[in-house]
Each structure stands twice: as structure tokens, then as C-alpha cells.
Amino acid sequence: MKRIFFIILFGFCALFARNLEEIKSSNEIKIGVRTDFPPFSQIKDGEFTGFEVELAKAIGNKILDNKGKVVLVGVEAKDRIPMLKNDQIDLMVANFTMTDERKKAVDFSFPYLLDFMGILAPSNSHLNKLSSFNGKKLLVIPGTTSDEFLKDNKTKFKNIEVVSCENLYDCLTKLKNNEGDG
């Protein structure tokens, strides 16, 4: 278990905005976590909870030898790269798909989660493949790989209207309120 933790810790060192010595000497590390991505991370009753939150705390405490302060900073999908680049956070522990474009902007650790892109639609809608969304509305969170995919493939999806959501809860609410089809 210690070996796995060390490998994870080493991998996340590549995401530091400040260097490791600066972080250690300040006795504080600022780690970005998503505010709206249960069960990985979310704010519940004013506190961050979830798998990535616990992972972020463990990494932060290991880096600071349990002698400093781990500060969790809420980050929305669209703000991940800007907050790293502007030194608002030292590293990010979040569902964050590696793309060639993103690799140009930030360093990634090795993946700890495999993810895929899909569309959620009501079961009675019969919208069961992407082509069935022709003339429909898709709910998308800006700054996500879903958003990037649709922008990069506009010619394929010219008849699909993209409706922006603030987060997963907003998308689900809009889907329930018939503001989008998937």
C-alpha cells in the first residue's frame, strides 16, 4: 500500500504550480477539488466529501509530513487549468481527462480512474445513440471533454443545440425540467 501511495504522490508532483520546496517551507498546500462531482468530490453541509477529497488530504498531509495545513479549494471544470496556471492552487486532484491540448497547458500524473463519455437521456425518449439527437438539445458543462468534443466536431453536430450547465446538478435539473434532451 505504501508503494502505491508513493507512486500516486510522485505522479501528482508534476501538477504543482509552486515547487515542492516552496510548498513545504510555507507549511501550506492548496489543492483543487471539484465542488460538484459525487461520489468523487462535492460540498455537502459546507464540507468537502468524496474519494478525491480524501485522496487530496492524504497527498497534502504526506507532502507536508503531517505538519502543515492542507487547504481544499473548490474548482469548477472550466477553472481547472486557469487556477493552476495562476497559482491559485498548487495541484489538482479531480476527474480531469488528459487530452493533447491540455497536456500543453499542465502536467498530468498517471491516471487513477478510467472514464468515458456518454449521454444520459430519459428512458422513454428513445434517444439511444448520438445520431438520434439531431434537432435536439444537449446539456453540457463548459470546459469538459464533452464540451471540447462537440466544439471540435461542429460539422457532425450542426443540428444539435448545446445548452450550458454550471455543474452536474444543474444539468440534471435542466434535464428534469425539459430544458434539454440529454
Strand content: 15-25%
Question: What is the helix tally?
Answer: 7
Topology order in helix (H) and strand (E) letters: HHEEEEHEHEHEHEH
The strand count comes to 8
- State the end-to-end distance: 40 Å
Order the strands across the largest sheet as they lie in space: 5-1-6
Structural class: alpha/beta
User: Overall pLDDT, averaged?
Assistant: 86
Largest sheet: 3 strands, parallel
Shape: elongated
Fraction of residues in helix = 25-40%
Low-confidence regions = 1-16
Rounded radius of gyration (Å)? 18 Å
What does this structure look like?
With 182 residues, the chain is an alpha/beta fold. Helices cover 33% and strands 18% of the residues. A hairpin with a 3-residue loop joins strand 2 and strand 3 (41-44). The protein is elongated, with a radius of gyration of 18 Å. The N and C termini lie far apart (40 Å).
What labels describe this entry?
182 residues, alpha/beta, 3-stranded parallel β-sheet, 33% helix, disordered N terminus
Question: Strands, helices and their partners?
Answer:
Blueprint: H1 2-12, H2 20-26, E1 28-34, E2 36-37, E3 41-44, E4 47-49, H3 51-63, E5 69-75, H4 80-85, E6 91-92, H5 100-105, E7 137-140, H6 145-152, E8 161-164, H7 168-176
Parallel strand pairs: 1-5, 1-6, 7-8
Antiparallel strand pairs: 2-3, 3-4
Short description:
With 182 residues, the protein is α/β, with parallel strands linked by helices.
